Amino acid sequence: MTHPFETFREKRLAGNEKALDTDNLLTKRFFSLDKQAYGDGALDAKTKELLGLVASMVLRCNDCIDYHLEGAVKAGYSKTEIDEAMGVAMLVGGSIVIPHLRHAAESLEFLFQEQQQTK
């Protein structure tokens, strides 16, 4: 059975391909800007993943949460570090963030299990 996170990855990839199959320069530039924003700068890319995660949780975007959780795990953050960042998100966003915290906890469990299997 396919895990919901794997389905998210597939849908995101397919959706990105369709979105970028355009001559619209604004769309292409926006996608490029996103990549540039999360690269190393005055802040390193690793730190920016946690910033993106917290912002995504406060904005209550599960797709964005999954995107940044995957980036945070790949960047080498521990579950304890990610949990602390998610706690900040809940403090800033309030109790309405709790359903997204639940979603994130399930996704994070999958990502760390997947990481263990690939070692």
From TrEMBL:
Leader sequence segment: none
Pfam families: CMD
Gene Ontology molecular function: peroxiredoxin activity
Record-annotated Carboxymuconolactone decarboxylase-like domain positions: 27-106
Name of the protein described by the UniProt record: Carboxymuconolactone decarboxylase family protein
